[in-house]
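Intended use. Records like the one below are meant for learning the mapping from a protein sequence to its folded structure. Do not use them to infer anything beyond what is encoded.
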Amino acid sequence: MIRYRSTAICSVEAVDGEPVFSDGWYVETKEHLGGFAVVDVPDDEAARYWAGRLATALDWPQEVHRFRGPGARPA
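Structure written out for the chain above:
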């Protein structure tokens, strides 16, 4: 069995119109219903910013995952 390291960085949800970040307790795949968005950003801080904006605008929790782009070296 091949096991993959988690790509999750954080999760965020809107509480009273403000993003609240968490570094754990990610939604299990079978519970994930909302779809996904891919946002090309330069670093984790920018990814967290956009996840917060999406969570607040959509009123739907978001997870931030790190994906390697084309030509990126393995971590």
